[in-house]
Design a protein that fits this description.
By secondary structure, the chain is an alpha/beta fold. The chain is built from eleven helices and 15 strands. Strand 1, helix 1 and strand 2 form a beta-alpha-beta unit. The radius of gyration is 20 Å and the shape is globular. Bound molecules: nicotinamide-adenine-dinucleotide and uridine-5'-diphosphate-glucuronic acid.
Length: 346
Amino acid sequence: MIAVFGGGGFIGSHLCQRLIDQGKSVVAVDIDSEKIANLLSEDSFTFHEADITDEENDELCREVIKEADVVFDLIAYANPQQYVDKPLEVVELNLFENLKIVDLCEETDTRLIQFSTCEVYGLLGNRDDIVFSEDSSNLILGPIEDQRWIYSCAKQLLERMVHAHGQENQLQYTIIRPFNFIGPQMDYLVESPDEGTPRVFASFMSALLFDHPMYLVNGGTNRRTFTYIEDAIDAIMLILRNEGGQFDREIVNVGHPNNEVTIEEFANRMRTIYAELSPDGTLPELRTISGEEFYGEGYDDSERRIPDTDKLQSAGWEPRYSLEDLLTESIQYYIDQFESELDVQP
Ligand code: NAD
Ligand code: UGA
C-alpha cells in the first residue's frame, strides 16, 4: 500500500490517479477531497479526511504509515501569499508537522518520499552557474525581514533533518525538489483579484476566463522553468520504483530545464494560446505591479532557477511537454471546465 499525505492537493490528486491507474492500493490523508472526488468510489483507494495538526489524528497517521510500503509527504502551505501573510503557520506545518511524519516513518521503518521545493536554491547571489544541482549548488536566501524566504528556510531545515535521520538512524528516504509544476486542478480560480492569490498559472488563467488584469509582479522579469504535471508524475513514479536503489537517500530535482521563460513572456504566451483556443473571448490587459503592493510587505523573489536533471535522466526520464504543449493542454482543460459549468447553470 502507498500512503499519500496531501493526496487531495494539486500534485497529490494526479499522483493518486496515476497510482490507481497502475493498480496500486492507495491511502490518502488530507483535509480536502474535492480534487479526488472521482477516486473516492475506487476499491483500491481509501481516503481519510483528517487534519494532521490535530492530535486526535496522531494514531490514524501512525496506523496509515505502519501499514504503508512507501509514504509520500506532500502536505504544506505552498503559496507565496501565505509565506508573507502567516509565516509562523508556514513553519509550523511545513517543518514541525512534517517532522512528525518523518519520525513515524523512522519508527516503522517505512520509506519516505518527502516533497521539498526548488525554492531552497533561493536567490542567484553571486553564483557562476544558473543550473542548480542537488548536491553541489549553494542555497542562498535573503534577509530575515524578507519573509518570503521562511518557506524555503523551513523546507531546507526539513531536508536537513530528513538527511540527518538517514545518516544517524538509517531512515530510507528520497527528497523531491519540484520546479513549478502546472496543469489541471492547480490551486483554484478567482473571479476577481480580491478573492485571493493563486500561483501564477491559476492566477493568469483566472484573468483570461473572468477578464480581469494579468498582474506582472515587478514587471514580470523573473524567470521560471515550468513543468507539466504529467511529466512530473512520470518522474515521481520512477522515483517510487527506485530501481536498484538508485534514489536511496538522494535529493532529486524534478523540472523541465528547457521550458524557461520570463513571467511577462509566460503571460503573453498564455494570451496567444487562449486567443487561439477561445477566439470569441476578450483578452485581459497586462498590468505591472510592485511585489509589495501585490503580496504585501516582506515579499522577495527568485530571479531564475533551472534544474540540473542528470539524476532523473540517467534513470531514463525525459520530459515530453514543451511550454507550448503544456500551456495548450492546461488552458484547454480550463476552457472545457468553464464551459461545462456554464452549461449546468440555470
Ligand atoms: P497543494 O496545496 O495543492 O497540496 C497540499 C495539500 O496539503 C492540500 O491538498 C491541502 O489540503 C493539504 N493539507 C494542508 N494542510 C493540511 C493538514 N493540516 N492536514 C492534512 N492535509 C493538509 O500543493 P501542491 O502544489 O500539490 O504541492 C505539494 C507539495 O509539493 C508541497 O509540499 C509543496 O511545498 C511542494 N511543491 C510543489 C510545487 C509545485 O510546483 N506545485 C513546487 C515546489 C514544491
Ligand atoms: C512557488 C511556490 O513557492 C511553491 O508552490 C513552490 O515551492 C515553487 O514555487 C514551485 O512552484 O516550484 P513561485 O514560483 O514564486 O513560488 O510562485 P508563483 O505564484 O507561481 O509565481 C511565479 C512568478 O510569477 C513570481 O515571480 C511571481 O511574482 C509572479 N506572479 C505570480 C505574477 O507576476 N503575477 C501573478 O498573478 C502571480
